[in-house]
């Protein structure tokens, strides 16, 4: 490996196997800095290349990237130029000598990576050598040995989950004093519109909700949705009150302002993609299913609903599941079935026969699908629900959303505080990724639900336990 003044200014990153398995494009994410792959990393990649899992596909993609860069006349001693970056890629071409503590001796892959990093620090005292790994325990071991270690940050949609777009802008009590001077108002097809100008308008996004600060004495409960944003003005629309009985959606009424916002998005034919975040009990699934049934049976807007979810167990696996695709997915769909029981009760006084008829009618228009068979499909005029979306990677999320054909609405539900997938965090989840990337698109909407509506027992348990 060559050294010099220019090379000394560049950092040398040693990549752990899990970084490449998590993001096959990580090779090109280190800008002007250099990368070294230890021999044990290549060996681990070879061991994980078989299979149909997302990790196996990522490993095969890494192998293809390496094959494209190697070519027939590549000189490994001077490194390979990295496409889309200014650094070079190096491979471990010789045995590096480094002494590890006796407790870390042996042939364990993590320890060999630590040994290589320690050896590189001794070989290049003028360079900053950094080990990058998604493995927390490996990073702790590295720090105890005096190695500079880092997590892989380039896959983060944003730096802090608390900064994630909520879909709502709470207006100050003096909002109208600064924004009512050039106010235009009009009615169109029974809907109320306003054109506003002022400093707050610059920070709004399409289909974002605005509401007056609930604190203080307000003459009216004002809430609206942003329909369009221009450099000097925004057009907003008063939204329907879905908390009233006459505006109930498949018998379901909004119990709070955020649920009202969610129903406004779900029932809007101009919005093709919706993301709804919130902890358990906030009504994400119930509201989405009610809106789906309303638009399938009453408004005839969609042919049927497609329901899928990430099948990541919270505890131990329950083993082999017999039956068809839908039968195998049934154990994962308990939350969907619980809500369908509420929605399929039928009219009051209809009795057991009426409930049975309603359930049969609904079941014919709901399809439960596994994510394993989504690749290559196209959904036309479907209402697609992706449940537990926080357990999906950005790449998996892209695969699912791009299945949408003309006339299809996609709704992603999840809680980024309950991620069960290894190596995914609140800032790297596919759900966080789509919320951040779609917020500026005029045909998408997002809302974060915060208030639980299950029972006083569930509310107290969330606070006390």
UniProtKB/TrEMBL annotation:
Task: Give the stretches traversing the membrane.
Answer: none
Question: Nucleotide-binding among the record's keywords?
Answer: yes
Q: Domain named PIN: which ranges? A: 11-140
Q: What is this protein called?
A: PhoH family protein
| Key words of the record | ATP-binding, Nucleotide-binding
One Gene Ontology term of the molecular function aspect = ATP binding
Q: Name one GO cellular component term.
A: cytosol
Q: From which domain of life does this come?
A: Bacteria
The UniProt entry's sequence similarity note says: In the N-terminal section; belongs to the PINc/VapC protein family. Belongs to the PhoH family.
Q: Which SMART domains match?
A: PINc
